[in-house]
Amino acid sequence: MENESMSDRLLTPVQTLKTTGARALATWRMDEVRWLAAAQLARDVPGESAHMNGGDSDIEAPLFRMEGGRFLQDGALPLAGGEDVEYFEIGGRRFLAAAGIRTGRGPYDLNTQATLYEWRDGAWAPHQRFDVFAAKQWRAFSIGERHFLALAQGVTVEGVNAVHPRTSRIFEWNGECFEAFQAIDGMWGYDWNYACRGDAHFLAYADHVSGSSVLRWDGARFVTFQRFEEKGGRTFRFFEAQGAFWMVHVNLLGATTLYRLDGERFVEVQHLGGAGGRELCLVEGAHGRYLVRVCFITGTPQAPIVESESQVFRWMGSGFALAETFETSGATSALSFMEGDTRYLAVTNSLSADQRFGVASTLYRFDV
């Protein structure tokens, strides 16, 4: 990759976004304006020793609006220990679900409240609050006329006690708010991903300690379709190609793996890099399909090695080939969108090499 000119590269940096300990992004268009929200874990505390789980978590999620091809900060949502912001709509109503893992600046409280905001009268107003424990990510999806919101949460750390419900769970919309629908036996949830193929509805759940799962809708609830008995699960992505159904699974502690549905099981096809992967972004470009894999850390939380490089893979028909690497710094998420005729990729960076939070995130032009 070092011999490529900038004009040959898929990713061209166009803007840095001022973030601190950034964890995830959400984007949407509203009244002809493109918006972006960034969940942030913490800010650095002057004089405090660097640590990836330290810092001041009583912060906010900045909101950015796009103007002239650039994002300008325009407000913020309260979001302590921010891990995720999820935008979705139900019947023309607009919502933002925000999740934070903790409050405080040491000691921390992992028993917090997650807030569902609704756009009303020109502002984001709290609509519903949830008692959560070490909340990581929301995922909104629908099956027919039923609307669901899944929460990945929990940790198993000595000395940390759950006062609020500790396992990951799924909520269903009742017409005015979300109510508890189904709990999952996962103790350290990270993410959910939904996909539909024909009449089959799949919901993948990634967990750090309890093993990850692909669930399938049986018409009344989600039941286990396949288990992945390993630690370090972070996320999944599904797609269809060449008449087959494919899945990519990221494991922070091991390989990122491509699977193909073969009859009644997902069968391993290819490894796409080793430990350190955190998140994925699938992009259907004019010239093919691409997979962005962002890398966070290797090692341990006590002695982390901050990953400084992430990858873009190109789909080749039966697997992926590395197309490009790009510099990141403890990257945690990637999100792609079209604005006019331009495709963008926004990547959150969360840690510097010396474990400081004050690292900018990056907006790229993605020439695919």
From TrEMBL:
Supply the alphabetized keyword list. Repeat, Signal
| Top-level division of the source organism's lineage | Bacteria
Q: Which InterPro entries match?
A: EAR, EPTP
- Protein name from the UniProt record: EPTP domain-containing protein
Q: Which PANTHER family match?
A: THROMBOSPONDIN-TYPE LAMININ G DOMAIN AND EAR REPEAT-CONTAINING (PTHR15261), THROMBOSPONDIN-TYPE LAMININ G DOMAIN AND EAR REPEAT-CONTAINING PROTEIN (PTHR15261:SF4)
